[in-house]
Every structure is written in structure tokens, then in C-alpha cells.
Design goal:
The protein is of the alpha+beta class and about 70 residues long. It has one helix at about 50-70; strands at about 1-5, 10-15, 25, 30-35, 40-45.
């Protein structure tokens, strides 16, 4: 897994495989790139600083809830 961040465009690329990208589908601020055989090759997160902050908040909330259950 490789990560690349472009601060100027605020885009985070998460490369999951080395196959050639055949097509992509966008849902909100996430573009999922697939190989010809349908495997996910890359995730492209637009407005990454905001989106990743939201992801981290969700993780921290779940960790807080889990810690409260112990």
C-alpha cells in the first residue's frame, strides 16, 4: 500500500495494487479506481484534509465508546 498527498489540490491517493487502472467510480469525495477484472487498485480522496479528519473523528469516537465498555 502506498500513499501520496498533493497539498495544492488537497487530494490523497491510496494505491492498493500495481495493476493498470481500467475505470473509476466517484461517490461523494471518493473515487475508486478498478482494474479490468474489477479489483480495487486505487482510492482517490478529494478534499482530503476534511475527509480524513472526519475519518479520524469517527475512529476516535468508536475507540472512546469501546474504552467506556471495558
Amino acid at each position: 500500500m502506498r500513499y501520496e498527498y498533493d497539498a495544492e489540490s488537497d487530494v490523497l491517493l491510496i494505491r492498493l495494487g500495481d495493476a493498470k487502472i481500467d475505470h473509476g467510480e466517484q461517490h461523494g469525495n471518493v473515487i475508486t479506481h478498478y482494474s479490468k477484472d474489477g479489483k480495487i487498485i486505487e482510492l482517490e480522496i478529494l478534499d482530503a484534509s476534511k475527509e480524513t479528519a472526519n475519518m479520524i473523528r469517527a475512529i476516535m469516537r468508536s475507540k472512546s465508546v469501546a474504552a467506556d465498555l471495558d
